Amino acid sequence: MTDLISIARSFFVPGKGILAADESVHSATARLASYGIEAGEEMRRQYRDLFLSAPGAEDYLSGVILFSETLEQKGNDKKLFSDSLAERGIFPGIKVDLGTEPISTSPQELITQGLLDLPERLIEYKKQGAVFTKWRAVIRIDGDELPTASAIHENAKRLASYAKDVQMAGLVPILEPEVLHEGKHSRQKAKEVLVETLGTLFSVLEENAVDCSGVILKTSMAISGDKNQKKDLSPEVAEDTIAALMECVPRQVPGIVFLSGGQSTDEATVNLAAIVAKARELQAPWPLTFSYARALQDEALSVWQGKEENKDAARKVFIDRLKKVSAAVR
Ligand code: 13P
Prior knowledge:
The chain is of the alpha/beta class. The chain has a single domain, classed as TIM Barrel. 47% of the residues lie in helices and 17% in strands. It contains twelve helices and ten strands. Helix 7 (149-168) links the parallel strand 6 (132-139) and strand 7.
């Protein structure tokens, strides 16, 4: 366990964070299609190479979360992505959940799959170079109806089971109970749901004797839903997000990372800077950083458009965004 604790801590080098490059085959294909890029396996490999082999990314990234397809692929330098990341001092990790399906008793809500053969898969991922893992649960807000307490609780139980298996396999688990940004809800509602979700998660982790000093929490920010007219100010987001975390997250958790959740790249950057400043002001016990997918990749994808001749320009945009996000957490 001592090893896991020190690995978990070492993600939080000042100014560094985690790139979530773990979109499933389905999500990656859809993401590329939204930029007019038709994607098969080779195009998805080039898409990963664009980001994972970008020179200089190692100055801002302590880890990258990969999807299983990418763990087996090589970059244009003919090295396995996981090997070249590790050589540059970036921990390779792997998304191990197998996606979500509707809950039979509440079909508008989702439960995450993938526990059944997890211990066997973890052995393979570890052999392939993974140092850490991620499991994403999805919590949806809709008026006063959703989320239900039972969806939050069931997802928390699976996160706890996952965390135990992963620690047993000698890897660091990232626990991601994502409270979705999609919806009309207020920031206050998002905060309440964040408190309920994180409060439930940490009490279920305790009941299941998961050692919280060897897990990383990946969380949403407390922000108004994307269909709410109200635009949050970043100090408001910071205040509510830190209040929710202070209420629920034990101090022995070695660090907390944020997802971008569909915020614009600038919003995700400015809100993060405000959250980190607030945490410092209130002497929050854990280091905080980013673990973004869209907010780090979107600008570069629109420059790249799947074309080799745009690659250098796209990488420059990616590194520029990394610099801004890194400055936000410094
Ligand atoms: P976004 O930053 O695009 O929300 O993605 C983070 C992530 O890992 C979602 O599972």
